[in-house]
Backbone:
C-alpha cells in the first residue's frame, strides 16, 4: 500500500528549524507496529542557502510536487517572497498545479509568503509569524492575515506562525490523519508537547514557569489525574495555594488560555483518546473524561472537530491486536 507522500519544499533562505520540524514530526508518526505512516521527501529547484550559514541540497526536484499528497513549505526569511513579493515561475506553477489536483498545502512561518506569492491564499485566512506583521501583509493585502494565532486550518491549505507553532501544526495534521494516539506518540518521540489549540495566542507573557515545579504547572498535572472528577476553578486555585484571581492570571500567562478553557480542552482530548482506544460506550466516555453526559460530549466534539463521537470512533478507532 502506497504511503501518504509529504514533500518538503526548500527554497532560497530556508529556515532550518522549520525544515527540521516538518521532517521530524512526519517521520516520527508511526502505527502500533512502529511502521512509518508518511513517506517524507525533501525537494526543491536545487541547492539553496539556509538562513543559518549552510547550504541545503535536497534529494528530489520540483517534480515531486506533481504527485505528493501533502506539500510543506518551511519559512524563507530573507527570500524574495518576503522582500519584493516575487516567486520563481517554476515553483509557482508547481504549487498551482498541486493545488488544482487537490494536494494539501501547508506552510510554516514565512513559508506563507510563498503560498501568497503563488496566489493560493487570496481571500483566505492565513497565519504567519507576528514579527513580520509590517512586511508580509503589506505585500499581500488580498490575504486575510491572522497574526494572533498559532495556526490556521482552512481545509486544503494550512498555515502556521513561526518556530514552535510549526510543530503544533504538523502534529495537528498527524492527529487529523491518524488520531490523537498516533500524534501523541509522535510528540513523545520528539519530546514536544502533544497539543496546543490552533487559536491560542502566538506569544504569551511567561511561556515557561520561573523554575521547575513553580507557577501553575503542578496544578495542571494534578488536574490531569482527575479529569473524571468535578474539578472547579476554585479547586485548582486552592491546590496552587493562590486566590482565584491570581491563579487565573498566572494560568493565562503560562498557557495562553483560561483555566476553564484549558480544562475543557484536556477533557475533550481525553474523550478522543478513549473513543480511539477503547470500546466504551459514549456515556461512559463522557463520564470518564469529565464531560458529564453523552449530550455534552457530542456538543463539545462537534464544536471542536466538527464530528459526532460515533463518526470519530469509526474514523480513528484502532483495531485490537490479536493475541496468538
Residues:
Amino acid at each position: 500500500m502506497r504511503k501518504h507522500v509529504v514533500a518538503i519544499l526548500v527554497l532560497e533562505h530556508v529556515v532550518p528549524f522549520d525544515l527540521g520540524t516538518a521532517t521530524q514530526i512526519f517521520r516520527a508518526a508511526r502505527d502500533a507496529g512502529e511502521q512509518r505512516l508518511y513517506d517524507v521527501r525533501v525537494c526543491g529547484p536545487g541547492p539553496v542557502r539556509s538562513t543559518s550559514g549552510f547550504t541545503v541540497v535536497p534529494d528530489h526536484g520540483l517534480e515531486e510536487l506533481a504527485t505528493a499528497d501533502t506539500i510543506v513549505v518551511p519559512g524563507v526569511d530573507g527570500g524574495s517572497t518576503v522582500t519584493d513579493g516575487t516567486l520563481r515561475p517554476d515553483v509557482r506553477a508547481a504549487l498551482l498545479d498541486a493545488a488544482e489536483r487537490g494536494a494539501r498545502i501547508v506552510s510554516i512561518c514565512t513559508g506563507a509568503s510563498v503560498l501568497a506569492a503563488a496566489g493560493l491564499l487570496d481571500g483566505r485566512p492565513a497565519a504567519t509569524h507576528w514579527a513580520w506583521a509590517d512586511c508580509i501583509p503589506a505585500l499581500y493585502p488580498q490575504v486575510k492575515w491572522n497574526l494572533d494565532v498559532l495556526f490556521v486550518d482552512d481545509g486544503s491549505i494550512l498555515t502556521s506562525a513561526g518556530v514552535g507553532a510549526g510543530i503544533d501544526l504538523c502534529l495537528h495534521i498527524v492527529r487529523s490523519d491518524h488520531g490523537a494516539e498516533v500524534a501523541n506518540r509522535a510528540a513523545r518521540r520528539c519530546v514536544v508537547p502533544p497539543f496546543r489549540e490552533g487559536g491560542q495566542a502566538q506569544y504569551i507573557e511567561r511561556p515557561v514557569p520561573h523554575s521547575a515545579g513553580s507557577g501553575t504547572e503542578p496544578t495542571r498535572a494534578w488536574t490531569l489525574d482527575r479529569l473524571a472528577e468535578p474539578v472547579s476553578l476554585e479547586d485548582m486555585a486552592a491546590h496552587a495555594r493562590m486566590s482565584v484571581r491570581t491563579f487565573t492570571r498566572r494560568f493565562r500567562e503560562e498557557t495562553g488560555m483560561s483555566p476553564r478553557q484549558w480544562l475543557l480542552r484536556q477533557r475533550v482530548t481525553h474523550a478522543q483518546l478513549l473513543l480511539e482506544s477503547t470500546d466504551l460506550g459514549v456515556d461512559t466516555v463522557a463520564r470518564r473524561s469529565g464531560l458529564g453526559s453523552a449530550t455534552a460530549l457530542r456538543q463539545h466534539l462537534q464544536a471542536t472537530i466538527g464530528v459526532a463521537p460515533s463518526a470519530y470512533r469509526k474514523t480513528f478507532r484502532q483495531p485490537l491486536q490479536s493475541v496468538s
